[in-house]
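Re: adenosine-5'-triphosphate structure - here you go.
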Amino acid sequence: MRQSQLFTKTRKEAPADETSKNAQFLIRAGFINKEMAGVYTLLPLGFSVVNKIKKIVNEEMNALGSQEILMSTIQPKEVWEVTDRWDSEKVDVWFKSILKNGTEIGFGWSHEEPITNMLKSHISSYVDLPVYVHQFQTKLRNEERAKSGVMRGREFVMKDMYSYARDEKEHMDFYNKTIDSYKRVFDRLGLGNATYVTTASGGVFSDKFSHEFQTICEAGEDNIYVHKDGKMALNEEVFNDKTLLDLGVSKEDFEFKKAAEIGNIFTFGTKKCEEIGLYFTDKDGNKKPVYLGSYGIGITRVMGVIAEVFSDNKGLVWPKEVSPFNVHLVRLGNSDASLAFADRLYTELESKGVEVLYDDRDLRPGEKFADSDLIGIPVRFVVSDKTVAENKIEVKYRTSAEAELLSETDALKIL
Ligand code: ATP
Ligand code: MG
């Protein structure tokens, strides 16, 4: 993409009410546009990052045997009344509306109820199970406070997966496989080192429990305790004498950290399927309730957390797996020679399938470098009169201070 054609412009200032680093940089660099508190548009650069995150998540969910669907946002109140989750006193994030004929509807803040209800039409026998489905869906939640940009929005993209299993073993096997799958997802997203699986509400040894995936991050809203061996972390709510005793660990070995929840998995046992009436007939003809598990990843929150965790004082720093482009080709000077060299290199890279943002604009070098640092593509190629004279390219990683002059062949090897 030629940067002269990219309709978004970088900005010197972010809106005054955006105090988090991720929101400031994402807005200033033109990844997102703020519509109102907690509501953001994905601009081309942000849309690209979100699509890359989705692709990685989708690959891993498919590898678990899950099938992708897309459920409706508009939902009938009846399926939520069955489980007593329609009442706004009980679920305080509902957005609701009324049809012209007076029918009340809700906008999906989650999908356990409608999907379980829908599956009653498709599951009746043990041969129909297990079923694993997931979707990438825009959730609407009337959050009391929007915070930290896309990290807590009122409209956000979530990956939600649901597992339907015949018995506890099948259910727990999948639940545990998902924990490993999520670890792979967060490794691939570049967040592996900063992310901990925490045991959340319910505690380790009760049958109703959940796990959270928490990324160490100052802008996060959660408090966790990380064990000094780095392998174990506990949520504040379960960090008590009983849990520590159960686990055979001592309080002093834990360190307090701020963290952001990027994923959350939990089991409903058979409770929800019993309430909604999702049963199957087993081999011996007995009617049994289905086991349900629910597995979320906050896709747009992940973008915010990556922006938050990796940025520096100059701007964003994308891990290569989710960067909107593989390389930022920056042309300095307007001589025929550098113009020809940069144009040719751009065409060459594109023809090799490299995703290039080509800064072909007539701006001062300082402005170009500032924009490049703000946007945060991991590798920068600079073509100038000086580099062209030596038949070289100046290569710099976003994370390093020094640049190096490389031949075109060596520069291409990096990509
Ligand atoms: P939180 O405690 O942060 O409100 P939650 O427990 O409500 O999260 P879930 O309902 O399990 O979260 O949603 C699954 C995932 O969706 C979360 O782990 C988080 O990454 C993301 N998520 C939840 N609420 C929001 C929001 N308001 N904005 C952006 N992402 C969100
Ligand atoms: Mg919430």
